[in-house]
Amino acid sequence: MGTTSQRKGECAPGKDSDNPLLGKFDKPLPCFGCGIGWFSFLLGFVCPLMWYYATILYFGNYYHKDPRERAGLAASAIAALLFTIAVVITVFVILL
């Protein structure tokens, strides 16, 4: 067997084109370090359209660029769904 610097089961670190010493996910996330998903989730309580923006990013597979974004985008998609259901129920109750 060939000699390698890795032991069985260990993964090779990712490469970064700007700085080869950094791994793929060593760069901080955008939006103050919390990522677009969580930033949209928090801002969605002030402006619910941000939840729909993050939902579009989630279903557009934006998280393939950085998997750390997936949880925040999914949380925003769930918040958008709950907000939509609440608005539909409210409109239904008011009109009937």
TrEMBL record:
Keyword Transmembrane included in the entry's annotation: yes
Keywords linked to the UniProt accession: Membrane, Transmembrane, Transmembrane helix
Keyword Transmembrane helix among UniProt keywords: yes
Residues annotated as transmembrane: 36-59, 71-95
UniProt xrefs under PANTHER family: 60S RIBOSOMAL L18A-LIKE PROTEIN (PTHR46666), RIBOSOMAL PROTEIN L18AE FAMILY (PTHR46666:SF10)
Protein known as: 60S ribosomal protein L18a-like protein
